[in-house]
Amino acid sequence: MAMQLKVPSIVCDGCADTITKAITELDSDAKVNVNVETKEVSTETSASESAVREAITAKGHTVE
């Protein structure tokens, strides 16, 4: 499932790496793109949106 999420707590490439890792821990085949400038995460994954949101939040980030 493709999804776009707004993550206003993204400030750097380290945040992007943390979020990417959180999503790929749920689904190792997930395609993840984190745009630090727009603070958007787009992903193509078999995980549910709620699971992805929880994984990102568990790493200390805010999802709108």
From TrEMBL:
InterPro entries: Heavy-metal-associated_CS (IPR017969), HMA_dom (IPR006121), HMA_dom_sf (IPR036163). The keyword Metal-binding applies. GO terms for molecular function: metal ion binding. Keywords: Metal-binding. Residues 40-64 are annotated as: Disordered. Residues 1-64 form the HMA domain. CDD domains: HMA. PROSITE patterns: HMA_1, HMA_2. Pfam families: HMA. It comes from the Bacteria. This is Copper chaperone. It comes from Adonisia turfae CCMR0082.
